[in-house]
Design a protein that fits this description.
Layout (H helix, E strand, L loop, with lengths): L1 H16 L10 H10 L1 E5 L4 E3 L7 E7 L2 E6 L5 E7 L3 E2 L14 E4 L3 E7 H10 L2
Antiparallel strand pairs: 1-8, 2-7, 3-6, 3-8, 4-5, 4-7
Helix pairs in contact: 1-2
C-alpha cells in the first residue's frame, strides 16, 4: 500500500513544484487510477530506459536518480538534449497512439522510475477532466 500512496503523492509534489497546482488538481478517482497503474522499476547506471527510434510504450516518472536524454552526432558521440531531475516526468509528451523515441534515455546513476503503460495513460485521459 505504501507504493500506491507514494506515487500519487510524488506527482502532487511535482505539480506543486511546477507551479501548476492552481490549474491542475487530481481527483481522488484520478489518484486511485494512478496508484493502480504505475509500477516501480529500477535502472542501473549506464542503462538505457528507451533507445532512440524505439516505440515508446510507457509514461515514465523519475523518483530518484539522474537521467540524460541524448542523441548521437555524426561521429556517434553523445549530444545531450536534456537532463531530467528527480520528481519529473521523463516523457510527458506521450499522447500519440504510436510514438517513437526522439532521444536515448540513459541513467547517469542508479534510478528508481515509475512507469505506466501508454494504453492506461489513454484510459486516464478519458477518466480525467
Amino acid at each position: 500500500m505504501k507504493r500506491e500512496i507514494a506515487i500519487a503523492k510524488l506527482i502532487d509534489e511535482t505539480i506543486l513544484k511546477m507551479g501548476a497546482h492552481s490549474h491542475v488538481q487530481m481527483s481522488e478517482g484520478e489518484k486511485a487510477f494512478i496508484n493502480e497503474h504505475f509500477e516501480p522499476i529500477t535502472v542501473k547506471k549506464g542503462e538505457h530506459v528507451v533507445n532512440k527510434g524505439e516505440e515508446v510504450l510507457y509514461l515514465y516518472y523519475l523518483e530518484k536518480g539522474n537521467i540524460k536524454l541524448w542523441f548521437p552526432d555524426k561521429e556517434n558521440r553523445e549530444i545531450t538534449a536534456k537532463f531530467v531531475e528527480e520528481k519529473e516526468f521523463i516523457n510527458f509528451f506521450l499522447s500519440h497512439n504510436t510514438h517513437y523515441a526522439y532521444y536515448n534515455v540513459k541513467a547517469l546513476s542508479p534510478c528508481k522510475i515509475w512507469r505506466m503503460e501508454k494504453s492506461k495513460l489513454h484510459d486516464f485521459y478519458n477518466l480525467s477532466f
